[in-house]
Amino acid sequence: MQAEYDTLEDGSYVATVPGLQGVIAVGDTLEECRRDLIEVIEEWIVARLQWGYAIPPIGGQMIASSKEPIAIVN
Question: Which domains does the chain have, with CATH numbers?
Fold first, then answer.
């Protein structure tokens, strides 16, 4: 899954990620837009986990949650 960047009429940038509904970031520079996108994706993941919604694979990685405690074995 790759971010898609576009230049707006005022010269600022907007980014979306296909498959991540509602994820959109803007910035005056491409780097600012990229940083905003990272923050938006992090917040999007946290919100979906809190609401119990599934998270699609991101970059080939799965994010799963469980209401059951996880036992860590050393």
Answer: 1-74 (3.30.160.250)
